[in-house]
Amino acid sequence: MLNHVTRSMLASTTRSPLIHSPSMTNPLPTPGQRVSGIPFPDAYALPGKPDDAAGSASHDASRQTQFVLGGDLRFFAEGMNLQLQLLNDSSHSRYRTHVYAAVVSTWSRAYAAMADACLLVTRGSYASVPNLVRSACELIAVEYQVKQEEFGEYVGWLMSHLQPDEERKAFDAGMGHFFAGTTIAADSELRVVYRAASDLGRPNFGATLILTGPESNNARLAYAFDDRAFHCAWAEIELGWLLRLCERQLAVAAHMRDVFNVTEETHAAVATYARRVQETLDNPSRARLEEIDDDNMKRWLIHNFRRQPSAAPKKWLL
Known about the structure:
Elements: H1 4-12, H2 56-89, H3 98-122, H4 129-148, H5 151-160, E1 163-165, E2 170-172, H6 181-186, H7 188-201, H8 205-212, H9 232-254, H10 264-281, E3 288-293, E4 298-305, E5 314-317
Antiparallel strand pairs: 1-2, 3-4, 4-5
Helix pairs in contact: 2-3, 2-9, 2-10, 3-4, 3-9, 4-5, 4-7, 4-9, 9-10
């Protein structure tokens, strides 16, 4: 679940949404749109083998990821399917409220981003994963914040848009700008993934070097163009991010019992999953990014960095 720090910080935050949160004296108006059933997959399946056109490097990355990190992949699939189970338990029409629509529509984007990121990890496309992870962090945070704090923003968007624009002969959806920075800042587990993925996803020189030229050193720059070769450390780091995102997503949904049908069995499964994720990520031999303070500057210390599992682990400082 979102930790006590998150809840206390959110409780103390005051913002001015477009339409204020409901109260006894100022209830939210009811939007006119009905909420249709939201279809979802029956099950999540891990990425299969690359097709013949993918190239030898991607084929090798797929094989080695399955061999070296098969446990992580299966664990990720378990978390993705647990999400679908929760959606299935809440698919009855009585759960189709506007809050449900706001949360599940955003959850859908987070789920797709996680699935796509896992596919890219298994193909050795490590440099493309951070931006998907960053997006998933933002989407999961929005689910929590729009429901718990600022549902009036969603209602205000619905009531101000979704109608024809006669002047432009278009249907006006409106952008509905929303960013859940408060939730990201307050949740320590989500924040560290978000900051790391953001720093690595942007065109920073050090990030570009370590993603596209991890064999570089003080004597030579060893960049590679569109490198898809297996890299144990990047696979561990990025699959670790995805496990954390699954855990955070499940925590957000499982604690919305007024929105979803969260059975005691599902709640217990979510709690068990969270404990196992923490145990997995706490493994000292795993490659990971540690946020450190270097002369009042936030930096990243990368532990156990190596291309092959048998190679000597190194540290990098970004």
